[in-house]
Each structure stands twice: as structure tokens, then as C-alpha cells.
What does this fold into?
Amino acid sequence: MKRVRFLMLLLTAAFALSLAGCGSQDGSMSSAPAGGREVNVCSWGEYIDTDLIDQFEEETGIRVNYTTTESNETLYSLLKTGGSSYDVIVPSDYMVSRLIAEGMLEKLDYSNIPDFDQIGDDYKHMDYDPENLYSVPYTWGTTGIIYNTKMVKEKVDSWSILFDKKYKGEILMIDNPRDAMGVALMYLGYSINTTDRGELQKAYDLLRAQKPILQAYVMDQIFDKLEVGEAAMGVYYAGDFLSMKENNPDLAFVIPKEGANLFVDAMCVPKGSKNKTEGEAWINFMCSYEASLANLEYIWYGSPNTKAMNDFLAELDTEDAAVLNPSKEALAQGEMFLNLPQDILNLYDELWVRLKS
It folds into this structure.
């Protein structure tokens, strides 16, 4: 499936996105520049079709200042220390819950986000924000193992391969504490949300034993390394695998039999935003069918916009569709991260610093 096919679809679609949420608080709307209006968006790398930024600016007159950060924990630190001035952030489920609990998010004005109606019911009233007061889903997906079939000849169906010494120097490990510890916990048969200190210690010990056989801890660096065959395997997200596969068809993806993390990333307005209305305009724009469809084709992450997701899946081959939209059986093996008690979060921080030192 080529990018041009969806560009043609989008060109033939009505690109007049609903701007009901793009006006000022008094209800006025404008598609022309409005006296220096802007919105400061912070998201993840490789996580948006940047053409959408230009389109939003043209349609609303609101300038977008778009930046990225590398992990939920880094984002939290930026917000906690007051070193950010964001109007929209895109934390993952468990971090949304933590930010709500600590009073770090603004309640959303859904009169500015009418395209929330296009979000599927399966993605509303989630445990991390049961009343949908603070967040609107952006994408969803799973983690798993991405591996090079030319370099790994055996069947890959378990997290155990990441701890196999025969692949020393060929393994990439995800560089954030919840995901890395989650891999170890799942392999050991524990919940990724355990608060048992003994289980967490065993997961840490496993990661410590793995460290000498790793090539590197990575986040977005995994794209370059796997696409050119510098490593045999790594832990990352299904949507990113589909992007990598376009550049290296030898890559494959598997959700291990022990299960994987299921996640939802959501758009939120942090406390103290100076451009809340503009932030809600951005959220509304990204909820729309046209923006969701364009973004799907570009980043390959599952969309909570039901119509966009179904239309996109219809254009995929069976193999890619199964990665983007796993079977109910595969999803049933997964688990979402939850916010953890503060003492356990402190323990995670301590263990991660020790592991990386």
C-alpha cells in the first residue's frame, strides 16, 4: 500500500474539517491568522504526519510550536519542574492517571472538541480517565519484539530471546523504566503492575544480567539500527515496526506468548496552559476523520477514530492488518500499565538509576 493512494483519498474527501473548536472562548471563529495565536504541542518522535501541522495552521491561523520528548518519565520531569510551557501533551495511559492524581492537567471543554464524537466507545471511559475529563485518545497499540529474519533464523515467540547470550551485541533494549521492567516482569510471569518488591527485584536482577549482552538501550535510535541491519532484534512498538518494514522488508514483529503491554496515548492540556482554547482546537483537529486517516498512513499506530481505522485496515494486507489490529486472543494476553503507588515509583527510579549506571 503506497502513500499516494491515501493522498488521493484525502484529496477527494471534504477537507473542510470542523472548526467549531477552533474559535475563541466567546464562540467566534476564524480561518485567518488571529493576532499571533499559537499552540505549543509536545509529543513523541516519529509520531505525526507533519503535513497536518501545516494544514492546521492554514485552516485556523494558529501557529503550532511542535517539540518532542523521549519518554513519559522525561515529560513528567519537565512538567514537575516547571520547565515546560506546553498547551498539549501526549502521555501514555498510566502517566495520564498519574498527572490527574497530582492535579497537573486541565479539565477539557468538550464544546471545543466536537469531533470527540468520532472516537470509538472502546476508547472512552478508560480506567486512567474514567469520566473523560482530562484526555482524548490519540493512538493505541502494543509493544513486542522486532527482529531481522535474515539474522534470526529460529522461531521467535517469547521474550526469552532477548536474554539469549548467543545474540550478544545484537540486542536493543527499550530505554525507559516501565517498558524495560515490564518486559522482564512478563517474562518472569508477573504482572507489569506488580507492587511486590521481591518480584520487582527479580525483574531488576534479570535486566542487570542482560545488560552485558546488549548492544544498546534505545528509543527512536532503533529505527536506524534495525532498518540497516546493525542489530538483530529490539523491543519497540507495533506501529513503528510497520514504518521500519517499509524500509527493510526482512523485519518481522511478534507479540510474545507471555503477553505484552497494551497502551493508549492521549492528548491532554497541562495545568497552567496559556493557550487552552488553541490546545483544544488542536485536539479537535487531530480527532477528525481526515487527520486521523492521514496520520494512520504516516505513523502506522492504531487510531481511536473508528471510521478512519476501519477504512485504513481495509487497504492493508492481512499480515500488516494483524500487526496494527491484533486478534482478540493476542490482546487478551496483554496488560495496560497502571499508575503505581509513590513508594513503588520511587523504587522504579532507584532501580533504573542503578541499572543504567
About this structure: Strands lie at 38-43, 63-68, 88-89, 136-148, 171-174, 214-218, 233-237, 251-254, 262-267. Residues 1-34 have pLDDT under 50 and may be disordered. The two ends are 44 Å apart (CA to CA). Residues 98 and 229 are 38 Å apart (CA to CA).
